[in-house]
Amino acid sequence: MADKLKVLILTAPYGNGHFAVSNSIIEEFTKYENIEYVLYDLYTEDYPATTKFVRKFYLSTYKKGLQQQAYRFFYYGSDKLLNLKIAKPYVKFGLKKMLKKIAEVQPDIILNTFPVNCTYNLCDEGINIPIYTVITDYFANSNWISTHARVHFLACENVSQQLIPRGIKPNQYRITGIPIKPIFYEECSKEEVIKLKRKFNIDLNKKVILLVAGAHGVVPNVNKIVSYITNEDNIELIVICGKNYRLFKQLKRKFWRSKNLHIYEFVYNMHELMKISDIMITKPGGITMTEAANIGIPVVLYRPVYGQELENAIYFSSMRAATIALQEDELIYKTLTILNDDEMLNEMKRNIKKIAIKNSAELITKYLIEDYQLFIKEQNENNQDKKNEA
Length: 390
Hints:
Elements: E1 5-10, H1 17-29, E2 35-40, H2 42-46, H3 48-60, H4 66-76, H5 78-81, H6 88-91, H7 95-105, E3 109-112, E4 131-134, E5 151-154, H8 157-163, E6 173-175, H9 190-199, E7 207-212, H10 222-229, E8 235-240, H11 245-254, E9 261-264, H12 270-275, E10 279-282, H13 286-295, E11 299-302, H14 308-318, E12 322-325, H15 328-339, H16 342-355, H17 360-389
Parallel strand pairs: 1-2, 1-3, 3-4, 4-5, 5-6, 7-8, 7-10, 8-9, 10-11, 11-12
Helix pairs in contact: 1-17, 13-16
């Protein structure tokens, strides 16, 4: 290996999860003097107009309609779609820009935190750079999976069940968990929880519900949910509106008299709010679920949309760490039932903590260093064999 290992990290702006994973890995990279990295968002940097349209479409899938059905068809039909001739422009999208970036950066390794399909076609261009992929959900469709990837990093054993039927060998995946901010790995004592509750003006004698509307505030019917829960005097409700300032203003205006309600916009201390809460209502993004698992907070998953979020919800529900609700009344019933049953609540807390894998970025980084050395050794041996044959 050269004096420094240069990594080209690929990310994308479709959901906050891919940037979050990239940043967690970068934070780990900074601990190593022998690692250099370049973060590259192919879509935003080189295709801004297309990216803006796709992001708008992606956010629209949270509303019922043709967009949601189209995304469902694409997500679950990718096995067949990606093998069709008509899909070649999609599979190779951005290849020329990628080749230009590779020539500029000269990376030793390419690390996908988003399924950038054109990287799996680099071998056809005569480029022999090992490709590693961090799958950022608890399920993987064909977009994520390629026999041309040297290693796929998985959230849990369950994901390997999607890889093996697609020709991925056992040495082509490692179960590392999904990288998140290290602060979510820190344990919190009862005394620290009490201090945090006082910090946020939370009644120490009440159960706490954390309602997270998502980074873009896309969870539907938040107003109705808040109306129901704030009528429960023995519960404190924390609502995170994300970047949906309109929702924030609506809630502030409508529920200004509710003393058991705490409303926030986008926050940077989510770990603290999770630690003081007994249960969380949210949408099942891969990063959010990983953070919840490491904190140990059970989750009620409201109207998961088709695709990775529905699959995340199914997995956590199967592990008895979360429950799914499709209507407001079902959501309220399930949330209050769990809160009022300490045995069920504690069981869900134990179950969700079993899913957690700590220090995922550290595990991935150490493996990258070790495996790249193995890759170089294999290349040298192959070159030697060719010389001997000549």
